[in-house]
Amino acid sequence: MLSEFGIVLLYFILGAIFVGIALVAAYLIRPSKPNPIKNSTYECGEIPIGEPWIRFNVRFYVIALVFLLFDVEVVFLLPWAIVFKQLGWFAFIEMIIFIVILAAGYIYVWGKGDLDWDKPRPYIAKLEDLVVGKKKS
User: Fold this and answer.
1) What pLDDT score does 27 carry?
2) Are the C-beta atoms of 123 and 49 separated by less than 8 Å?
3) Cα dihedral sign for 83, 84, 85, 89?
4) Is pTM, for the whole model, over 0.70?
5) Which residues, listed in sequence order, are joined to residue 46 by a DSSP beta bridge?
6) Which of 2, 54, 68, 107 could be stapled to 6 by a disulfide with Cβ–Cβ 3.0 to 4.6 Å?
């Protein structure tokens, strides 16, 4: 007879087998008709300009980090809001301090202009720009 861990292991094995069978079946029945349009780079509906090896604007990463910051805030606020009445005034004051710190960070990022989203002109790098030690003329 299997223990509880054996049953969980059996579910993992059966799940892996099911996923493997589904992937093999999808590979066998899918159509394969590649063409230049399908093989081109897709960037959210925009026509690709230049080479794919360009430097991305740092703004993409800043927006992602700000999103993670406020996503983590929600992760802490939801459990606190559920048990708010049992926690008392001390937890309320702690959460107010937490929200004030996050608001200060939001105001700082906003004031710095990192939340302004304008489409920068793409910089198309040339091979000469990437070679180290070569002087630009």
Assistant:
1) 94
2) no
3) positive
4) no
5) 43
6) 2
**Cβ neighbourhood burial of 80 (10 Å; 0-12, 13-18, 19+):** middle
Tracing tokens 């604007």 back to the chain, one arrives at: 57
The SS3 of residue 46 is strand
Bridge partner residues of 43 (DSSP): 46
The C-alpha torsion from 80 through 84 and 88 to 93, rounded to 10°, is 50
Question: What does residue 44 show for φ and ψ, rounded to 5 degrees?
Answer: 55, 40
- What's the CA gap between 104 and 117, in Å, rounded? 20
Q: How many residues make up the chain in this entry? A: 137
- Cα end-to-end distance, the chain, whole Å: 78
Q: What is the spatial distance between Cα 104 and Cα 111, in angstroms, rounded to a whole number?
A: 10
Where do the H-state alpha helices sit in 55-123? 58-82, 84-87, 89-112
User: Are the C-beta atoms of 123 and 56 separated by less than 8 Å?
Assistant: no
Give the helix/strand (H/E) hosting 44.
none
